[in-house]
Amino acid sequence: MCLSVNAKIWLPSILSDHMVLQQQSEATIWGWTTQSAETITITTTWTDSIYTTKAYQGKWSLKVPTPKAGGPYIIAVKGHETVILKDVLIGEVWFCSGQSNMEWSPLKGLENAEQEINAAHYPKIRFFTVNKKKAAYKQDDTNGDWEVCMPETMKNFSSVAYFFGRELYTKLGVPVGLINSSWGGTPVEPWIEKEIIESDPDLKRSAEQITDQVWWPRDPGTTYNSMVHPFLNFTIAGTIWYQGESNRGIANSYYKSFPLLIKTWRNAWHNDFPFYFVQIAPFKYGDSKTNREAAFIRDAQLNTLKTVSNTGMVVTNDIGDLNNIHPTNKQDVGKRLALWALAKTYGVKEIDYSGPVYKGHQIRGSRILVSFDYAEKLTAGERTISSFEIAGNDKVFYPAKAEIKGNKVQVWSKEVPNPVSVRFGFTNDALPDLFNESGLPASAFRTDNWKSN
């Protein structure tokens, strides 16, 4: 809802016409008034209750219980004047963030773009796009508007977020609100509070190594301040995240910085919400020095899945494009994110939501037997199983042969008679071919903790 700049009572942009509030929660309604100690009253059309608070130094805030999914509703905010919010839905709200593969819209590159755009008539899905802006200090508000999902709005919105939201709406039958706060090219550090990065000597040193860019921010906290902090009062169901490519040059620090992002966001929201993320796709990086920088990012992402609770990881090594860092198959990315949410957040039964994930291994003479979670039976698709390497104590990896044994894989190489470690899909451009029965791909992994490449 656009308010006059002379309005005497005003709300943040996220609280506006067409918005979606999280169902069965305590939604915070907040804003400002030019009368510093004014009494503010809020009424809604989903209840007869009246909610009242008093502004302090011009700022006011209160919590309003929300019902089960439904709408549309009206919210009235009354003081010395009245602000009316119309066409408000109650449903599921997700914060969608990261770099370009989250930001990318259908108009920038999408399989079957015209067909998908024309079919995007979902009035109970709502979009909020956060304007790209960096700030040295934490902001209370940002520009943006809620929009109803239709072809004219979907074509400029995040493709991944849209397909994620469409899958939730289709399966759950409730309104879905999607907040797209992403900026192509950004490393993880700008999305974390500056004080937190600078309090850790290792992370501070790594952040200083990131190359300066004209097109996107690199300094810690600069997007957190302007593109995350303004929404901390807004109740969300969870977060989806697609980022990592821009941290390849300091991949070792991602083992610490990525889990830290999740922890600090949850602390800031005071909510241990689910955090589902996408493992970066294979790509032929022209600036690669070792052809393994992205592999270490994927490994850090896998490590986060295993060590941080209430997280989920989508593997994309089968739907990437070695010559396009922005793969156009965003449909499967969004759907795979939704599988995690449907199974783990919404409790939908009988859904396979993860591909095979490394569980453990046994060394048996010259061979290594690898076991997996999320894999009652493994398949290699239409190709011979590949992308395995093994090494001995010299830490030199050799291509290995591999054979599926039910839900395990046996790996060996004549070059390594006494293996100690195995890796799978551990290069920037690896195209692994290991799947479970549901056709979901196995994550790249390594069994060693060697820092060398």
From TrEMBL:
Keyword GTP-binding applies: no
Identify the species of origin.
Answer: Zhouia spongiae
Protein name, as recorded: Sialate O-acetylesterase
Q: Which Pfam families match?
A: SASA
What Gene3D superfamilies would the database entry show? Answer: SGNH hydrolase
Q: Which domain of life is it from?
A: Bacteria
Lineage of origin: Bacteria, Pseudomonadati, Bacteroidota, Flavobacteriia, Flavobacteriales
Sorted alphabetically, which keywords does the UniProt record give?
Hydrolase
Q: Where is the Sialate O-acetylesterase domain?
A: 92-338
